[in-house]
Design a protein that fits this description.
The complex is a heterodimer of chains A (115) and B (114). By secondary structure, chain A is mainly beta. Chain A contains no helices and eleven strands. In chain B, the strands form three sheets. In chain B, strands 2, 5, 6, 10, 11 and 12 form a six-stranded mixed sheet that branches. Chain B has a four-stranded antiparallel sheet with strand order 3-9-8-7, with no helix packed on it. In chain B, strands 1-4 form a two-stranded antiparallel ribbon.
Chain lengths: 115, 114
């Protein structure tokens, strides 16, 4: 098991373009989370999947953001019509719902820069 | 609403001395509490958690934390700091009755001086 992976690690895009990020969770984990982290801040929760179902979405998640987990394995986060304020590190995490395993395991993140 | 406060942006400690990184939280119900560490250019790593039971929990790399319900605190401690402990530390909380919305604190930068 190689842990949570994210692709790409870095993305530079021009304002107004669409971007898509991918997250591959730990294989036996059925829960998947997306967070956004800006410099000097802790991660901010964006959305949560249980298997393929998107069960929670933060008010931070504007209608330009959409996330999917079509087969309950990998997930994608798309940002449409990017704005400079979208520049941040986007983190993916996964966890298991078995027993006391409530902790999340994080990927390395995708750093987005909108110019 | 859930919230986490880490009152110190920066903590400096000499190598070999005990360290404490403070965390207080606010939830409407009962909390799950976590500590994570972030090294430069690396993802957040899980350190320890409080779910239920003993208020003193032990985690990775010799760290421990004490859950204090009356003070709504979950301070991170280590008896003897190492230079390699220098990193950014995040406290996080989830309300047991409020879905999967984890709330993280702003982080505390720990510097262990040789």
């Amino acid at each position: 098991d190689t842990g949570v992976s994210q692709d790409p690690r870095h993305k530079i895009t021009k304002r107004g373009q669409n971007v898509t990020f991918r997250c591959d969770p730990i294989s036996e984990h059925n829960r998947l989370y997306w967070y956004r982290q800006t410099l000097g801040q802790g991660p901010e929760f964006l959305t949560y999947f249980q298997n393929e179902a998107q069960l929670e979405k933060s008010r931070l998640l504007s209608d330009r953001f959409s996330a999917e987990r079509p087969k309950g394995s990998f997930s994608t986060l798309e940002i449409q019509r990017t704005e400079q304020g979208d520049s941040a590190m986007y983190l993916c995490a996964s966890s298991s719902d078995r027993g006391q395993n409530h902790e999340q395991y994080f990927g390395p993140g995708t750093r987005l820069t909108v110019t | 609403a859930q919230s986490v406060a880490q009152p110190e942006d920066q903590v400096n400690v000499a190598e070999g001395n005990p360290l404490t990184v403070k965390c207080t939280y606010s939830v409407s119900g009962n909390p799950y509490l976590f500590w994570y560490v972030q090294y430069p250019n690396r993802g957040l790593q899980f350190l320890l958690k409080y779910i239920t039971g003993d208020n003193l929990v032990k985690g990775s790399y010799g760290f421990e934390a004490e859950f204090n319900k009356s003070q709504t605190s979950f301070h991170l401690k280590k008896p003897s700091a190492l230079v390699s402990d220098s990193a950014l530390y995040f406290c996080a909380v989830r309300d047991r009755n409020y879905g999967q919305n984890f709330v993280f604190g702003p982080g505390t930068r720990l510097s262990v001086l040789p």
